[in-house]
Specification:
Number of strands: 5
Distance between the termini: 34 Å
Strand order of the largest sheet: 1-2-3
Structural class: alpha+beta
Length: 166
Amino acid sequence: PDFKNKLTEPSNIYYFSTYDINRVYSQLEKCILKKDLDWIICSFPSFHDFDKNHGKNTMTILTFAPFKSAAFWKKYKEDIFKKMIKKANELIPGLTDSVILKICATPNTLFRYTSNKNGAFSGWLSNINQTKSSLLPQKTSIKGLFLASHWCTTGYLPHGGVPNVA
């Protein structure tokens, strides 16, 4: 579908079937193996720079999932992936008819590429216990080189993270 004409601003779609988010977080394996997913987030990165997407839209669909063994993901990955796409298609009718390429990443995939603990997709938790350790400064000794990630701090806040990327 032509998402640009259906959504007027860059946006995300959050779907929750329950207000009991603590249950979902505490029972991730049980929740993702149910017939229907309790929640997904749909994001559209191409909306942020639509003129450079060569007439194609990109969409990311995510849900929280537990860090499990390779055997677990070999067994359940495709089923969970199909449920995510099915739910996204319910939210955006006609979506599946427009898909050109599908790629599925699990927490194991994220761990392999980022080494983030348990395949976390968003990095360190920015709380007082996590920020007691020294983070990398955003400014470096190399002129014009700045660091931007959850591993660094901007120098004016006591914690790092994407919200602090300048």
